[in-house]
Structures are given as C-alpha cells and as structure tokens.
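Forwarding the complex inputs:
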Amino acid sequence: MSPAAYARCCAGILARESLRFVHQRGRFISALVRPLVWLVLFASGFRFVLGVSIIPPYETYVPYQVYIAPGLLAMIQLFNGMQSSLSMVYDREMGNMRTLLISPLPRWFLLTCKLLAGALISIPLAYAFLAVAWFWDVDPPAWGYLAVLPALLLSGLMLGALGLALSSLIRQLENFAGVMNFVIFPMFFASSALYPLWRVKEGGLALWYVCQANPFTHAVELIRFALYLKLDCVSLAVVAGSTLLFLALAILGYDPGRGMLARKGGGE
Amino acid sequence: MGSGGFAVTAALAVTDLSHSFGDRLALDKVGFTVQPGDFTVLLGLNGAGKSTLFALATHLYHNRSGAIEVFGFDIRRQPSQALRRMGVVFQQPTLDLDLSVEQNLSYHCALHGMARSLAKRRIEAELDRLQLIDRRRDKVRQLSGGLRRRVELARALLHEPSLLLLDEPTVGLDIASRGFLLEHVRALCSERQLAVLWATHLIDEADAESKVIVLHKGKVRAEGPAADVIAAAQADSLSAAFRNLTGEAP
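Prediction (whole assembly, two chains):
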C-alpha cells in the first residue's frame, strides 16, 4: 500500500467519525452542558469554601472558576475519550468494528486513526466551552487560546487511548456504567482538576501520591499551563508517555493473536 | 491441480483448521477449498462453527492450529494481501444507520485506500448494478432490510475482490429479497469468476450446481458438488443427506 493509500484511509476514518459526531447532536450538547454546570453551579457554590493561593502558572489570586476551567476542559476530553470507547464497544456489537478491521491496512494504523479522530472531535467542544466560560470571567491571555491547542490534542489522545485500551477489555455495552464508576470518577476526583494539590497534601499524603501518579492530573496541568502560556515539562512527559503506553495496550488488546477477541471469540 | 501440471491456486484454502474457546472446541480439523468461479454453500445449523470460521478467515483473531490461505496468502502471515482480495458480508448489520448509502460506501473505499475518483466510479457502478442508484443519498435507516443487505453486498464488491464471503446473508429477508441476492451473487460467480463462500442454515439456498460443505459441531461432514454429497449420503435430496450426515433436521 502506498503512503497515499494510508492518507486516504486516515482521512476516511476522520470524515466518518466527524459525520457521526455531527449526527449525534445530543452528544454535543451534553458534552458541553456537563462542564458548564460544574463551572456555573459548582464553582459558584465552592468559591467561598475553597481558597486558592497564588500557584503557578497564575501570577495573582484567581477566582475559583478560573482555577477549575482547565480541569473542566480535561473533563470534556475524559468523557469524550470514554464515549469513543463506548462507541468502540457499540461498534463491535453492531459489527461496524468488523468493517474497520477487515481493511487491508495494518491494525495499529487503523486504531491510531480512530484515536486521532476521537481527539480531534473533542477540540471544537473544548473551544465552545472556553467561549461560554469567558462570560464567567475565565479570560486567559489571547495567545493562550492558541497555545492550549497542542495541549488539548495531546491530552485528548491520551484519554482516547485509555478508552481504546479499555474498550478491548469491555465485553458488554452496559458495562459503561462500570467505566463511569471505576475510571471516570476516580480519575477526575483524584486529580488537580477541582483543587490544587497542596491542599490535597494537607489532607493526606497517600491521596497526594495517588493524585500525582494520576495521568489525568498531568493532562489538567498541561492544559492549565498552556492556557497561561507556560509549559509544564513533567506533565508533558507524563502525558506523552501515558499516551504511548495506553496506545500500546490498545493495539495489544485488538491484536488478533493475543487480545481478548481471540480468547473469548468476540464479534460473534 | 489443474490440467497440464499447472497448479491452480485456490481462492480459499482451509487446511486442518482447529479453534477452541476455553474447553469448547469450535472447529475441529476443518479443511476445504473454494475455487475461482465456485458458488460454495457452507451448510450448518446455528452453533456449527460457521461464525468462528468467518472470524478466523477475516482475521478478527488468529486460528490456534491449521491454516487459511486466500489465493496462496496466509491470513496470519500476510493479512494485508489476503484481505485485499476478499469481500465480506457479515451476518450482523454493519452499516452506519445515520449516514447515507453513499457515505457508507465511501468510508469502505477509504479503508481500502482508494482514490476518490476511482471510489466514485466504483460506487456508481455497484449501486447501478444492484438497482440502488436512486437511493444513494438516502440514510441507511430509511432502507428496508433487503435494501440494506444489497448495500452491504455493494460495499463488499467495491474493491473488486476475487473471493466473496457471506455469513448468513439472507437471515430475516423476505423471499423476493433472498431471491434477488442469491441470483445476483450466482451471476457474479459466472460473470467475474468470483469465488463465493455462502454460509447458511437454509438448505434450499444450495442448488444442483452448487458445491456444498456440510459443517456440523465444528467438523466437516461432507464436501463436494451437491449431487455427489446426496449420493454419498445415500439420500434422495440435500435435506435428507443433511439429516443422514448430522442426525438433525436442517
């Protein structure tokens, strides 16, 4: 197969995922409403409870809603990544996944394109959220809106890859509820999305270690720093490394010789 | 072997294929060939191992032992070469209901790395042949079961495969749709020398000229032209032969 064939295949996968997303208007709205509810209701309620001191990348005291905005951007991507994983399971049950997997192009390539498509879809959502959040005084520097783009893409890839890896393990559609309980909520709450980690450290050292080890924390920090035109190198390394690890697990999970499909006879 | 000592490469050659899930043996030393131009009916009841065979042949997962070759290309070692020559209609519906007929077909062309202009030409030609050209912009959701199957058949043919695998393609279809599909695929066999493996549990889908493979509980019980299978089973019809070979009614 020529490089042009690879490019056409990837473009086809991106086009199909975008078309599907456009047709699922409900998904767009709920993906946007969810973080806005947190921003408007949760942040208003908690701004008086949780004080935020001056911590990098901020140079002044910031209102609570400004602090949690990057966490909510990452939340959009977390849900999007898991929803893509849900769509993989759904696809597999509906047989659409089989269509993808009988392509003569290598499977790792097909899965990577699918992952890229999922990450790209989350980006307009993130910008729509930032546009609405501007009315709630979340106003990062103008260049921050551009600088955050690569951070969003990378964190979207990481969370999508995690979803993809999980989807190769999930056998049944209804198990997505389990993904909510065991993946989304723990990752979100044991991170720096809602409270700075120095406060977590005051609360308990063990939890602080958990938060530090949580790749989602690093996705949030990568986005937060980028939005204020700074680079958090540790977060960048963790997010990039986790992306590769999760992608490798996903490729292994869908490997015809080793994956779950082979052991249990998926797709029948 | 062909005449004059030239080896004819089988479109599909399955040799000594076994596969199990845990302790359950789904396929037990299965072997058969499908030649170019053959309309081969794989007959088996539900649970006979047909879907496992299709999953292995389409590279969804690897076989434990034995080999599957498509025009001489081993599906495990050269999946890309093998898959390129293969068109598949799966048992379960695999179209995107919210996308149009054309969008579904373009997606398949992209998965095969086809250039847009070529894809457009092939889509038009297949839709025309399957009498679907005026429905090209309709969403798949608006189509009847029979038409959806036709779209899936069109899709399987877009990259001009030489081997076509169909897993229970007529399940849930009315008599007219079934007839259309069978007739069309049989015509493809003779016109394009397409090799077809048609899995079904409906015995009347095999006619006198078909080659038949009877698969039962993971084993091939008989293989050959329908007339030979009937004669070998000392029966007067294919259903009687099936009953004799498997002890169960088709």
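Residues 159 and 181 of chain A are 16 Å apart (CA to CA).
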